[in-house]
Amino acid sequence: MRIGSLSFYESSILSMGQQQADIAKINQKIASGKKMLQPSDAPVAASQALRLSDSAAARSQYVENQLKAELALKFESVTVAEIRRALTDARATIVSIVANQDQNLLYQAAGQLKAAFDRLYSLANTQDSDGNYIFAGDNAKVQPYVTVVPTPAAGAAPPPPTPFPASYTQVVKYQGATSGENFIEIEPGHQVQVSDLGPGVFGNIFETLYNLKQMVDVAGSDPETDPNFAGDVGDAFTLSQADVDTALANLDTVLNQVGVVENRIVGAQLDVGTAQKTTKAYLNLDLDVLSNLNQLDQAEAIVELQSRQTALEAAQRAFVRTTGSNLFDYL
């Protein structure tokens, strides 16, 4: 075999082998629907695709955070609305109370105050779908409010600990976090508050309702027997209009606190809504560009495949003709 013929033979075999490999790769691309089977297919595009993938993953995490924040705010919003209704009902009851009025009316008012107390106590211990107490701060697995047996009036009992003023009987104890509202990062470097601490919502409403109820319900004696809502041993309350006015002022203060919380929640919800629109828009852009980078044009790929197959077949025929005459006829 001549050197020239041998060289032609080897180069032809290598060329056809490469063509077959290219055709196999195109078939793989068509089957997968991807332009790039490996980074070396298009290094620049692969680098850009990696950056976009990281960006899309980060944005997807923020979308999850936003949904979590949205749900937490909805839970609190619904609960705070119920708290406002309970306080408003309690306020109507307090306004109706008049010192020295018919005892039956006072007993009726006392029952309504007890119902308001119980309703607010239940709302104060609201849990979300994950079992977290929404007014416990970052101590969310601990029930924030618990009832305690009131301290006897007689004797040298120490004043109630903070956050309860010493002038009030401690009938409900707050044991949630005293600091540490929950925040969720909804955008890079942008956090939103998704909860409030119990004292910032309820203030001293439990003590207010308890004390007023006792003054309305008793006259020189204390017949209460419920350990969760019992009168202090030996108490002898006397109801006056000043007591009613004080309770009303305290309740209005709590209503103002609730209003502040409501405004904060609305602002946070608007904040989350804006972040959701922005994040989803950028995420969709990332995904569109990423898709364009890596999505195969099937029609174009099929045309290229047919073209390469035709070229390979032509090369094979030429190889057979050439090698048949040059390599075998002239050895």
UniProtKB/TrEMBL annotation:
Residues 15-139 form the Flagellin N-terminal domain. Signal peptide: none annotated. InterPro entries: Flagellin, Flagellin_N. GO terms for cellular component: bacterial-type flagellum; extracellular region. GO terms for molecular function: structural molecule activity. It comes from the Bacteria. SUPFAM superfamilies: Phase 1 flagellin. Its main location: other. It is found in: Bacterial flagellum; Secreted. The keyword Aminoacyl-tRNA synthetase does not apply. Keywords: Bacterial flagellum, Cell projection, Cilium, Flagellum. Coiled coil: none annotated. Pfam families: Flagellin_N (PF00669). PANTHER family: FLAGELLAR HOOK-ASSOCIATED PROTEIN 3, FLAGELLIN. Belongs to the bacterial flagellin family. This is Flagellar hook-associated protein 3 FlgL.
